[in-house]
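Mods, move this if it's the wrong board.
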Amino acid sequence: MSDTSDGLRSQLGVKEHSNTLTFRGMKDADFSLQSYSVTSGQPFDGVRSQGGATLSVMAGRKHSKPVGDWYNAQPAGAKLRTHTELAAPDALNFAIRGTLTLDDGNGPIVCQDVVIAQGNWGSVNYWWFTAPGMVESDEDVRYAGQAGTLQCSQRGRPIRLHFITESGDNPNCDTIIVKVTS
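Not the wrong board. Structure tokens:
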């Protein structure tokens, strides 16, 4: 894109951000993108592993109802969120769907058809996380967050992961705790 186009996009408030989400308790994270939705006119440049267990979605941060509708239409189980002000996503900045690969130090853990989205509540950016078969639980929930379990696979064998969100003291709402449960 030319400098003139970049300048115009900047004046219109259109900016690509490195939107990071960390999976605490894991050593590594990767995401193989299958599909996505982003607010019309906003940039999107894919998903990158930032090293460790952090992913970065390179996208704009303007929420819209079509992105929320896309997220809600994806095959999913329980929908976990990192901010407790909302019961269901309506307008979101962007949403991605694909294969999430985590590593706990014992080899890659593969979770299929994971859908991750970002929205905002005032000045706080928060995340939504779901996949088919995700079951909500109240185990290990802290600070009014949420928890859910998901069946994934490690080296061809089934493995259950427990995902926990915390929102109380975390103004950035950018971390999901992950524990292997079986």
